[in-house]
Amino acid sequence: MKYLTAALMLLILLVPLAVWPSITPASASGTIPTFSIVSVVSDKTVTIKTFNFPADDTFKVLMGAMGTRGVNGIKVATTDSGDGGTFQKTYTIPATLQGSFQIAIRLQSTTGSGYFAYNWFYNNTTGAATATPGPTPTPGPSPTPRPGYTGFPTFSIVSVERDQTVTIRTSNLPPNDSFTVTMGAMGTRGINGIKVATTDSGKGGTKTLTYDIPTSLKGSRQIAIRLQSPTSGYFAYNWFYNNTANNP
Asked: Measured in whole angstroms, how far is the alpha carbon of residue 114 from the centre of its chain?
């Protein structure tokens, strides 16, 4: 069976950066479909951006409480993937979830292809909150505002070379910032993980970055990865399957 994801926390995604697990097993072709959070209008809409989506498929869009990954959530729309790949869509937040601090969102194929993707977002326009580990994150200190920067950064998983490297793609990365990159066990969201690099955001926005998988995590089936700024407070996290085919 083929699978699709997501990552999504400020994810990432930050969904705000930050994403909650935004990736899932990929198809036999080796691609990993994901989506990141682009923007949120509190209690009204959320806009997402897809990556590596399969063509000519139909997805029901579900939203639910944080921690559910959107499973059995409220159906808010049906989306045709068309040519697939990257496209942007905006969905209405259902009345029963309005007022929620965080909301899970899921795209699930209705055609029998088995593809799906999930992520989550802060139900506000700034996404300026920090999550702690666990199924029900709690708010923390807000990131330091950056002149001219709005929204929240996220990142998705592009590819994995088993026990060697992982490549990510950022979205809406804040400019002129520095991020510590950590990896850890699945479920940790990369908090207090092993430092593998420091990344300067430069002009920000979209960047494709590759990091080495640390020795102590080699052989792990799933690995959490986190980008955290020690100065501004922005962060993002995601996770990936540690193999080349991204099969569970």
From this structure: 20
